[in-house]
Amino acid sequence: MDSFKRALICAATMAFVQGCADSGAGPTVSPRTAAGDYAALSAFDSDAQMLAHLQSAARTESARPQIEMVADGVTASPAADGAAVISGAISGTNTQVAGVDEADLLKVVGESVFALHGVQSAYTVEGLASEYDWQSRKTTISKYRLSGPAALESQAALPDGTHWRGLYARPDSDDLIVLGEATAVGSSAYVYNYGWETSVFLRALSQGGEGAAFANVRWDLQIDGQLVGSRRVGDTLFLVTEYGASYVRPQASSSAPGGGIDSKSLSDWLPSWQYGGVDRGALVSSADCYATPIDQRRASTRITTVLAIPLSSPEQLTARCLSGTAETLFVSQQALYVATTESYFEAFGDVLIDVALPEGMSTDLHKFHFDETLSYGGGVRLQGHLGWHAQQRSYRMGERDGVLSVVTSGGRFWGGSEQKHRLYSIADGAEGLVIRAELPNDSRPASIGKPGERIYGTRVVDDRVYVVTFLTTDPLYVIDISDSFDPYIAGELEVPGFSDYLHPISSDLLLGIGKSAQTAGDGDSGRGGWYQGLRLSLFDVSDPAAPALINALEYGDRGSSTDVFSDVHALAWLQTDADAARFALPVNLYRHASPPTDPWQHGDFVHRGLYQFSVDSTGLREQGVALLPQSQQWLSQGRPILSNSGEAWFFDAGELYHAAPSAPVTLLPSTP
Question: Could you tell me if residue 523 is left (phi over 0), alpha (psi between -120 and 50 degrees) or otherwise beta?
């Protein structure tokens, strides 16, 4: 089967696969390891031991099918990250953990706003690149002054050839950190990892004064590999990257380009880095790295690197690495966790596919402490996966008093396969991470979710875990984790539709952002319910044994959506009291011109606008809808800003709009 047809199969089956492969017999798959059997990884004793490990992994890895690309170009997949309660005069980046910052397209620093525009990735299907639009747009960074209609103070173009993904503002400094990534994608039947020549870029820019922003490049850093995720804690930026060296497959012809497995030295397998344009050599050494087991599922020559970069002296970075891949990360103020779900191959027609979420799979979790050496804290294997939604994987984790809670799911998310969801409590033990408790268990057998229900929203908040499952209704589960040795389901509530994102307002109030649903036939992908309009739900969780719906607001018909579904940074949040807040989110509204005959029919596009709300213990209330002067659909990277004066701004498609509190009907472009 040629590469183009293989890519079409991948695109057509994006919900089922992570990659496609050459036809032929599949690898012999070793038995799965039971959850909890995974001990801490072993450090490499020498360069020779690490080289032998990578060579062995290459022989096993290259015997498996490989994703093949069909075009060359520059691409990247947008990252998506978390959310937390924010207080202050102006809303900031919506983050998962308080005190842990996340890269975003927009950053507010005092009365200044910095925004990236032109951020666009090539068309991808579950990480598989296709032939569509391989060129990144020109990316600009703009500085605005917030004072009524915001004034554009300066603007500059960032270097081409890089997908600039987000910004960080360095605390107590005028440095602005720009994070980017570039991937040249190629194809070869003989070379494993061929074309995945990916680099992560960090550039520190001076915010500058009026008309002179971004003129001074303080420093720049380039790292071989692709970005898994990033977070900032204080003045340290933490990165997780993944790198795979290309090599000739053992079964390739003698005329194949590149070096074979045995001809490569250890440095050839390791990522390199540059600082200030000067090559610094290998990013890690064998003394920094830990070996993962080699079997048919996990054998990999890819190197996952965990980096701690002091922003005051980035050349003095600290690096640790694991042999193998990474899927997501979770960062608290004390530690960083890296998680990855095993690979699994099944026959699909005349090819083998890497199934995204098979039944019975497991997830490996590793911990790194925030100490001077970024020390490895151990690993554990959990039964199940972290879900199919990349943005929500980190939200299945949360740390409280040094104990990590993780929610996993077993079974596929399509085809009616029964789901089994689990909660794990994980903590430091004498020799690394240990599982303190698993739910359900023999003493507490109640399941999380009813048969066939999948997890949509998850949030760990203090001593509770909130889980939303959905098939035809939206059960909200409240799990008490105050005793990490004995978690239990404290209460549940069933309401129509589902919540895709959960946001804590206080210990008593929880906001859900999702969709309404109609019950009819098999529903969307066999779910039993058909998604309809946008739905905001306010829950009273003051009594965890009896959660209650205070009220809900619904907007539009099938097709209506909010940018928050694709990136939680699209939510602007301004806490106004202990139990009260204002918030805003971009909405694309669709409505039926006449009553639909079937629940799967989409409405017609009506408008795109900024919807503002207030919330307290008495309920959710709409505070205003500000529409773009020219309605544009298909946009999904809007970023709102709120101030305690009642004003709002909305950065969308390269324009910063302003909504005055006295007339929030139409968004007006800010002053150029």
Answer: left
Task: Please say whether the beta carbons of 113 and 106 come within 8 A.
Answer: yes
Lowest mean pLDDT among 3-12, 82-91, 108-117, 532-541: 3-12
Residue 121, pLDDT above cutoff 60? no
Q: How far is CA 116 from CA 93, 107, 127, 164, 658, in A?
A: 14, 9, 23, 8, 18
pLDDT tens string 431-463: 889 999 999 999 999 999 887 788 889 999 999
DSSP assigned state of 53:
H
DSSP three-state, residue 526: helix
pLDDT reading at 128 higher than 50: no
Question: What pTM, to 2 d.p., does this model score?
Answer: 0.85
Q: How far apart are CA 425 and CA 436, in angstroms?
A: 5
Q: How far apart are CA 262 and CA 247, in angstroms?
A: 10
Q: DSSP for 504-517?
A: E-SSSEEEEEEEEE
Q: Strands, E, within 356-419: which ranges?
A: 362-369, 376-383, 397-400, 403-410
Report CA 233 to chain centroid distance, whole Å: 18
Q: Is residue 265 within 8 Å of residue 285, measured between CB atoms?
A: no
**10 Å Cβ neighbour count for 271?**
23
Of the candidates 301, 305, 271, 273, which has an alpha carbon nearest to the alpha carbon of residue 288? Answer: 305
